[in-house]
Write a structure and sequence with these properties.
The protein is an all-alpha fold and 242 residues long. The chain has ten helices and two strands; from the N terminus they run H-H-H-H-H-H-E-E-H-H-H-H. The longest helix has 25 residues.
């Protein structure tokens, strides 16, 4: 199912872009494909941003519920879900976009690891996609069919910047001298740390094992998300100040 739902469409989209751009450059094709994917996901990104803003707004109510029902976990869970429902919020929406991108990244990985590029595999192409596009795998001296430490480094760096920026409008837990953190605050702090450091490092390490084109997807995706975040913050400035 993954083959037909993700790999085949992704491979055909990439080969089609290669057939219509003059240079036939793989890196340029990946950049164009990434931008197209991000534009398609833009409504979901907007919804996720507004959800994060709304979750920040209900934090005082959430803390009050957590304090009031801290000894009754079952009632606490019900009250929290009730609060989310009253505000039309999904507590898991903030990570939904990340999970949607995972099969896209895997599809790109298989496109290059299975030998679909630079040699074209005609058996996996739709009838309207050219079987003989020009394919150039080099850009600025980098072979985008092979792994690249430099491209991997920038993939991790821009992912860190993106996550760091997205956390600015959320309430990060801070240590107060002489005051211990509550269990839920400790979990939130650990999750924030994992997001800021573990994910970028993981992307960098993974980039050393895959084609630079896959890492390039993360770079362009992160740059798009950074620009998008800045745009949303400006457009919904009033919402952020509430």
């Amino acid at each position: 199912m993954f083959h037909f739902l993700f790999y085949i469409p992704m491979y055909n989209a990439l080969v089609y872009i290669l057939s219509v751009i003059p240079s036939g450059n793989i890196a340029v094709a990946v950049i164009i494909l990434t931008v197209i994917v991000k534009i398609i996901l833009l409504p979901l990104s907007k919804k996720m941003f507004l959800s994060q803003v709304a979750q920040k707004r209900i934090q005082p109510q959430l803390r009050k519920i957590q304090e009031e029902y801290k000894d009754n976990k079952q009632v606490l869970g019900l009250k929290m879900m009730e609060l989310y429902k009253q505000n039309n919020l999904n507590p898991f929406s903030s990570i939904l976009l990340l999970f949607i991108q995972i099969p896209i990244v895997f599809a790109l990985y298989f496109v290059f690891s299975r030998g679909g590029l630079p040699v074209i595999n005609g058996a996996d192409l739709y009838g309207f996609v050219s079987h003989t596009p020009i394919v150039n795998q080099y850009l600025f001296g980098v072979d985008f069919i092979k792994a690249s430490v430099v491209i991997g480094f920038f993939a991790g760096l821009f992912q860190y910047i993106q996550i760091r920026l997205s956390l600015l409008h959320m309430n990060e837990v801070k240590n107060v001298p002489g005051q211990s953190l509550k269990p839920e605050e400790m979990i939130q702090k650990q999750m924030s740390f994992m997001m800021k450091w573990f994910i970028p490092v993981l992307i960098f390490i993974a980039s050393l094992q895959v084609a630079a084109s896959v890492a390039l997807y993360w770079i362009v995706s992160s740059l798009f998300m950074i620009s998008q975040e800045l745009y949303f913050r400006r457009k919904y400035k009033a919402e952020l100040l509430k």
